[in-house]
Structures are given as C-alpha cells and as structure tokens.
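Project channel, design review

CF: Before we commit to the Sulfurospirillum diekertiae constructs, I'd like one complete example in the thread so the newer folks can see what an input/output pair looks like. Taking Cytochrome c1.
RD: sounds good, go ahead.
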Amino acid sequence: MRELKILAIVIFFTAVVYWGVEPFAHSQMHPHVAPADFAFKDLGASEKKGDATKGAETFLSAGCTGCHGISALGMPAPMDNASASATFGVVPPDLSSAGAIYDKNFLAALIKNPTKALNVEHKFNETRPHPMIQFFGLGGDLDQEVADIVAYLQSIAPVAPMDDKKVFTDACQRCHDMKYDKIMSTTDKDALKAYMGTIPPDLSMMIRSKGAEYLTTFINNPQKQLAGTSMPRVGLSEKAQNQVIAYMEKVGDSKKAERDNLGYKLIGYMALFTLLAYLWKVKIWREVH
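CF: and here is what came back for Cytochrome c1:
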C-alpha cells in the first residue's frame, strides 16, 4: 500500500509539471498566432470573372515574358539563372504551374501590388522598389485585366495532380536548398544574400526543428511567426502548401511513422514491465512475511 501512495504522489507531481509548467514553457517558446489564412482576406477578392483568351493577350502585352518563362508552352526564361540573379536578386519563377499552386486571390494581388501581396512592405518601398514591377493596366478595367491574366495562368496550369516534390521545387527552390534530396537553390547565393539580407536556410531538417504546425502558419504568412523577416508570403493554396510540408517531412523526417509506432510499443512495454515488477514484489514480500 505504501508503494501505491508513493506512485500516486509521483504521478501527481508529474501531471502538475506536464499540464502546468510545460504548456507555459511552450507558450513562451511558441507564442500562439492566428491560424493560416488560405483565403488571404487582407488582400481582398475580386468579383471579376477572367477570360483566359484575353488574359493571354494581356500577359504578352504587359511584358511578363521579359522576366518570366513558361516552359510548359515552350517559352524559356529570358535570362539564365546567373543573369537573373544579378539583375533581380532572385530568379523569377517559371509560371507553368503558377495557376495550380498559388491562390487566385493572391495571384491577383501580386500582379497589382507585389510588395503588399508578398507582405514585405517593411523591406521594399519607394526608395528601394521591389524587383517585380507593379502592373498598372493597359488602359482598360484594371481588375478585369488582372482577372484575365489569372484565368490564363490557371488555364495553362497542369491538369494532372502534381507530386509533392514538384510543388516544392516550383514554390521554394528559387531561394532554398534541400540538400538531403540533392536540390540546390536556382539563385546565386551571393545575389540572394544581398537581396534577402541573409542566405535562406537549407530546409532538409526544418520539419524536425520547427514542426508541421509552425510551418503551416509560417509559410502562409512568415510575419506571424517571425516579425520583420525578409521571407515573403508565398501565397500557396492550402493543398499546395500541405504538399510542400509533406515533401519536407518525407525528406527530413522519413522515420516519423516508425518512430511514432515505436513510442506506443515502448509505452506498452513499460506498462507491462511495471505490472510484472509489482506482482513480483508482492510475491516476494508475501513469502517473507
């Protein structure tokens, strides 16, 4: 009976630490932030219905091909990666999959006001303009022209589902390495450092160091988790962002399922061992008395 009382005391204080102290420590290390907003409400939403055919014409007339390639349509990037890095600070994305992986409201806002859409107004301003030129329209209804461009990008996007790795490379590889999978950023490191202020981290172990919950809000809006960071808002749809995180988990934490399963087995073993130890103790003391 005395041993059971000791066990009860140990359990009580363990519970106090686990449900009292640990949550407080966690709240200090990982402050609560608002959940990811995949509707991008702060950017607004256009009610205009885009016309992909007109969007193709507007896309060309606006000079988008001066920076961007569309490899799916046989339109290569106008510069090689080294030249693009030196010119813009970061290699402009190929837009073949943009309509599939990025949210349409984000794309519309990005075309109209890149600095606001990317949430980097603290980094770029009138004295230091963003390398992506703001689209002021071709003389017609600006919102309609933007909606047409977005519709065009959606019309040329892959119809078949993209695999997780492809989504990652299209969304993240311009800045980040994934060395565990032999993926290196397409932008020159020196140019990237000058553009960002620091070299963006290799993401091989980011899933282990930060966790999926943190990355979900961080990728959606980096400023929520790290105010003042130079990392822009990515603008991925919820599906595409989940694919990016799934890929990061596959590369950086491939043993997660095995580790979780082993944890349950270990808990079961310890419970069984405790029971057997207690029964053995009862038997020994019964013989003594």
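RD: helpful, thanks. Residues 1-32 form one domain.
CF: The chain has three domains: 1-32, 33-252, 260-289.
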